[in-house]
Amino acid sequence: MAPPNSALMSDLVSGATHVPSQFVRPEHDRPNLDQVIQSPDMSIPLIDLQDFDGSRRSEIIKQIGLACQDYGFFQVKNHGIDEAVIDNLLAVAKEFFHLPESERMKVYSEDPYKTIRLSTSFNVRVEEVSCWRDYLRLHCHPLEDYIHEWPANPPSFREDVAKYCKKVRGLAVRLLQGISESLGLERDYINKALAKHGQHMAINYYPPCPQPELTYGLPGHTDPNVVTLLLQDDVGGLQVLKGGKWVAVKPIPHTFIFNLGDQMQVLSNDRYKSILHRAVVNSDKERISIPTFYCPSYDAVIKPAPKLVDDDHPALYRSFTYGEFYGNFWDKGIDKKSGTSLGMFKTN
Ligand SMILES: O=C(O)CCC(=O)C(=O)O
User: What residue stretches are annotated with the Fe2OG dioxygenase domain (predicted)?
Assistant: First the structure.
């Protein structure tokens, strides 16, 4: 075992045969893994983006609209991002988490407002039970403002991550156009509502866990941003709440999982919802997942799209800046969230 003063959970629990008490969830808040729906037929829709910018656009927009309405989650294939870009990112991410502790700790911080930081759990400053996760969080847009802060080790880290970030940003912008159209809004309505845009990435590292039924990689939460594009390796662990039941999302290589965040719920005036999801761990294998949180810039004013507000559909949220929302999200901590963090922004 590593010395008990290791800040990162992967160092603290290395070689552990039991889950240390700070990671054990109270009995009413455990994953109940035997009740999770594992059937691929019950999982989230898989949308083929082939010819999205051509002959299949209206068909795909219909599929996106249905998936947003019924699930808040979907997967995409034929998205146009090269497999090598994805494989290189997953490889360099794993390499980073296998560096010696002293090397990784160079970017450690518990301050959620830092634009680059390696940390552990969710927000160690406010939570009572820890999550079985370490994570590296990077701001990625505009790239030239942040890339110099990123780890210089592994040597290809900056190049591999930057290539991926640029491609994923392109995909996010295209999908946001599709979502705008699915809501009957102008194609660029949502992209314009995000002002200068923000893009954050987390590289989540979940080591194997001797007692996965006692803890979470991440407990149920919604994402604070507008949309998330999640890349996961081949291990699996993401579960999505559907009809009151947790449904496992089996990894499909080189696809992305796309989910709506709290800002989309506001912009769409609740036509689309931000859905609870969680990450569970397993006893055999380490797991990497890499969400890209696509977001408004902090100064963007978020409110329901005027076209989606009328006498029958009054505005359900007041206007607020994303900066106001985001500070509240981190300060609350993930355990205290029941559903979204949107309560204080509702009109009644
Ligand atoms: O690891 C996963 O599959 C989910 C990650 C996630 O929900 C997050 O980082 O917010």
Answer: 196-296
